[in-house]
Specification:
alpha/beta; Glycerol-3-phosphate (1)-acyltransferase; 7 strands
């Protein structure tokens, strides 16, 4: 998957999440070409807000603390996959880590740096010089961004709660730390805009009924069958619970797109070119290879309950020379049935919530929390 396509999926993912958790308002836009984005930092939700606000043509990458996010295990894999993050050491070597991003900037991409170096509170603290040396070395501007509302959405050492977030993108500046800090502080202090009166369930229902919603489900399902780590059921959950009738076209779209993506991965596996995917462990690959060697196309029947991603079975089927049609039949019977079952359950839940539309955000937060916990357990279990 290209960097721009992955950025588009992250953009859609975090747009959906922030719409559910209270809404997102974005003012301003990034300039054409590469730029260093500097922002205030008070919450882990800041990166989600920025990725949801920035356009995918910049394919943004985010500098993240190596000692916290990249100490190993599932956290670093999730950080790379969902936040497009790269590690920066906070004690020795951080300048070299930042300087390695020069090539990204010269290729026209955006690099996000939190110059405070850690989460703060209130007005931005002193900005470290690394982001500005990076911008000067690459010959690109610095773009100040003020983020408002994330500290209420996900407080430091606190729990997630519903709140509207605003991202204010400022005017590009030369590589000057003091001027950038002043601009970020000013953007973060601006009065908040009037909130949307449309409930989050209604916004999600409008998306579900639109062509954009169908395209979102299709792209998501294809991408998950190739390299994307989040199941198509994740986006179906948000849309079909909000608009149960839309499930009549969204669920078949997810099934068909997933099968198309699986055939693509099978072909890539046969050619020896299947891409490495985040959150896929070596034990998963070995188990899928053993099952495929023993059962051929029928090995796909294990996928819905094994926790091993569909893309792994597709790639191993390709490497084993399994014919596309038998694999497609087995995958459609088992994986397709699971997607359809989840879609039907979401529709029933949506019908049940019809009288209590205000419960929609809480239901989705609970559902995604359970999914995240399950994902962590699966990855740990196969590590």
């Amino acid at each position: 998957m290209t960097a721009r396509a992955a950025a588009a999926l992250r953009h859609l993912l975090w747009r959906v999440v922030l719409t559910i958790t209270g809404g997102l308002t974005v003012t301003g836009s990034l300039p054409c070409g590469g730029c260093v984005v500097v922002a205030n930092h008070g919450s882990h939700a800041d990166t989600a807000a920025l990725l949801a606000a920035m356009d995918s043509r910049h394919a943004p990458r985010v500098a993240a603390a190596a000692d916290y996010w990249f100490a190993g295990g599932w956290r670093s894999a999730i950080c790379r996959a969902l936040a497009a993050a790269f590690p920066v050491r906070r004690t020795g070597g951080g300048s070299a880590d930042i300087a390695a991003a020069v090539a990204l900037l010269q290729a026209g991409r955006a690099v996000v740096v939190y110059p405070e170096g850690t989460r703060g509170s209130g007005a931005p603290a002193r900005f470290h010089a690394g982001a500005f040396r990076l911008a000067a070395a690459a010959g690109v501007p610095v773009v100040p961004v003020g983020i408002v509302g994330t500290t209420d959405l996900l407080p430091k050492h606190g729990k997630l709660r519903r709140n509207r977030v605003e991202v204010r993108i400022g005017t590009p500046l030369p590589a000057d730390a003091d001027a950038a800090r002043e601009a970020v502080a000013r953007l973060a202090r601006l009065p908040r805009s009037a909130p949307s009166r449309r409930p989050s369930r209604e916004r999600a229902a409008r998306l579900a009924a639109s062509r954009t919603g169908v395209a979102l489900v299709a792209v998501w399902a294809v991408a998950e069958a190739v390299v994307w780590p989040l199941l198509p059921e994740c986006v179906l959950f948000a849309l079909v619970v909000a608009a149960p009738r839309a499930g009549l076209r969204l669920v078949p779209t997810a099934v068909l797109a997933s099968m198309a993506g699986g055939l693509c991965t099978l072909a890539l596996g046969a050619a020896g070119a299947a891409p490495a995917a985040p959150l896929v462990t070596e034990r998963m690959r070995v188990a899928a290879a053993q099952q495929t060697a023993a059962e051929g196309a029928y090995a796909a029947r294990h996928q819905p309950l094994s926790g091993i991603p569909f893309k792994v079975y597709a790639a191993e089927a390709g490497r084993a020379g399994v014919a596309p049609l038998p694999f497609l039949a087995a995958a459609a019977t088992h994986r397709g049935l699971r997607i359809a079952s989840v879609g039907a359950a979401c529709a029933l839940l949506g019908v049940g919530l019809h009288r209590w539309p205000r419960a929609y955000p809480a239901v989705l937060l609970a559902g995604y929390a359970l999914f995240t916990a399950g994902l962590v357990l699966v990855v740990r279990g196969w590590t």
